[in-house]
User: Fold this.
Amino acid sequence: MFRIAEKKDLAEGLTLMRVEAPNVARRAAAGQFIIFRVDDEGERVPLTIADANREKGLITIIFQQVGASTMKLGALNVGDCIRDFAGPLGRASELDDFKRVCVIGGGCGCAIAYPQAKYLHSRGAEVDIIAGFRTKELVFFEDEMKAVSSNYYLMTDDGSAGEHGLVTNKLTELIESGRQYDAVIAIGPVPMMKFVCLATKPHGIKTIVSLNPIMVDGTGMCGACRVTVGGKTRFACVDGPDFDGHEVDFDELIRRNVIYREEEAAARDHVCNLRKEAEHLG
Amino acid sequence: MANMSLEKVKMREQDPIVRARNFDEVTLGYSAEEAVEEATRCLGCKNSPCVSGCPVGVKIPNFIQKLVSGDFSGAIDTINETNALPAVCGRVCPQESQCESKCVRGIKGEPVAIGRLERFAADWARENRKSAQAVAAKSNGIKVAVVGGGPAGLTCAGDLVSMGYDVTLFEAFHVAGGVLVYGIPEFRLPKAIVRHEIETLERRGMKIVTNFIVGRTMTIDEMFADGFKAVFVGSGAGLPRFMGIPGESLSGVYSANEFLTRINLMGAYRSETDTPLKKVKKVAVVGGGNVAMDAARCALRVGAEKVYIVYRRGMDEMPARVEEIHHAEQEGVEFKLLHNPVEILADERGAVRGAVLAEMELGEPDESGRRSPVDSGRRTEIELDCVIMALGTSPNPLIASTTDSLSTNRRGCLEVDDDLMTSRPGVFAGGDTVTGAATVILAMGAGKRAAEAMDRYIKSL
Ligand SMILES: Cc1cc2nc3c(=O)[nH]c(=O)nc-3n(C[C@H](O)[C@H](O)[C@H](O)COP(=O)(O)OP(=O)(O)OC[C@H]3O[C@@H](n4cnc5c(N)ncnc54)[C@H](O)[C@@H]3O)c2cc1C
Ligand code: SF4
Ligand code: FES
Assistant:
């Protein structure tokens, strides 16, 4: 059992939890994820590790309450226990070579983009962040993001906060104004990542995406998470979740991510469910 | 005077039509009277050929004689001397190619039903003895680690506990059991039985840490630094193979591991659970092993109207147990032999709508001695909404890739010496991770041998 040490609402439907999981915290690195199961009847759901505190043995997760499992999780309070909490899973992001980076987060994806930006910043890299949200009420981590970046650009689809427009508008503007990047890191709804990759490709800028396909075990034994990268089948849970965005077959991923759309709405949820935003963008 | 009937006492089964729609156990086991009657068919041969066919050397005639005399408790004690999971083995071992294939009674008529008797003794003990005999073994305080809670790891851990070691078993999933809980379905091996066997081991002092992925949560190198004197790796062969044909990533195409895990481990067939499973109507399972049979029979039980086994060779070449094939046929699974999918077809939404099958012919025998299938060039199309790939599995590379100097062979299996020690001193391995996908009893045999070798190794330090 894994005790919840802290709980905070970040935005509408968006929850942060710090969970006592010393085994996970000991080796957790940016880019890795955990799999939780709320109770004995729960499904196995992956969530990216937003932060890890080795000394206190705490793991921070951020999730949107949309499906049965994330709603059940969100219903727990400080002092309650999560049945299962396994990790760290997946490969850690390989960010050490980058000196000038643009980190792009879309919606709940900002929770995953934040530890990457934080890590890069701590290593002395120059970091620009573009954070995109649908609307003002959903914005979170503004101060945290500012603290780990040289420039922070906030974008909303409806213009209710920051600038009006999509993250790709801002990215293209920056590139065309002559901003140089060794790499772009894009994390968010699949269509957003796809369009970021389309925008960087002509400029030959290395683009890393963090994929969130449907998973079951998260250890490489089921193949539910398979994605096509560079024409080859890869398992996101063990070969990823980070991949070279210019090699990913996004259209296939979009189709696979909606496999359970028709199934019981309550049971099909997954990671921070970014679907609503995906539909909006795509 | 022995009972000279040429046939085994029949074991009661659920009716095929009824059972094809439920997850209750298919075979119902012997009553005490039936067990004693079958036991009297054993001749108690002095040279006991049956024992030589058992990978863990269960003293077969001895336990059967105890059943004859009504000493059920003595029977299970005799079995337990060499087999820690008899309720499991009695159900899933391929006795027809092991002990029963050597039985003298099998020369004329059917062999003694050794597997059913083993199951009877184990079930009797579970129902009648409760936890009486599970006393904690005395600990010598020496820490050893076991990686993986399948039959190999459980057996190794159990034996090490009996020898007095302080044993911790690390399991990646949220429960131990390995293939016994995620692969083999409830209707062949009720999960309550596996749970009972594991709880017995825990009461004897084995510690289980679940949600612990060795190689990620902690590496084997770190385990040694943490004070473990030896490590047994029984991580199985869980990595599924795909065919590499067009359409394999469509929605509705599963590995057998995924399909079976959703159903067995996650209980997706029960309405109380959150794990989703797509409604399937027309299913093709590709492959001819036990895994394919289990997937096909599960598909029926979750409501499929039509289930095919698509296998590229003929019935005689099928690697699945005869009993499993027979049960699948009885339940209405249709066998498309000498067929092999070459493409999976998509509907406009990217979901499976069918498959193109190549008709195959049998050519010359290949290295496995089976006649190899050759594409005839002819094609047929079938309508489907689900395709399950049961093409075999190989060991997960995670442990080998995160442990210093652990060598593997061409197929990704860990290499071991005669003592089951890997290239890394103090690290032992056994079960599917060494042999590739094999059987429960071979994994148990390896766990047992490794426990003895680990004991010798630690004493030599
Ligand atoms: C569907 C199916 C049906 C079968 N039917 C039969 C049958 O009827 N009869 C028969 O004899 N055999 C059968 N088999 C084969 C048999 O189940 C296996 O040969 C046997 O379970 C192998 O045992 P094992 O202990 O080596 O591995 P497994 O049972 O695979 O156990 C390995 C365990 O290690 C864990 N693990 C893996 N990696 C790590 C890690 N890095 N850290 C921690 N834990 C880890 C896994 O989660 C798993 O629990 C069947 C197999 C399948 C898939
Ligand atoms: S070979 Fe058959 S008859 Fe002889 S001891 Fe073994 S089980 Fe009994
Ligand atoms: S989630 Fe099962 S293999 Fe990746």
Remarks:
- Residues 16-128 of chain B form a domain with the Fumarate Reductase Iron-sulfur Protein; Chain B, domain 2 fold (CATH 1.10.1060.10).
- Chain B touches chain A through 43 residues (CB under 8 Å).
- Chain B has three domains: 16-128, 143-238+393-460, 242-389.
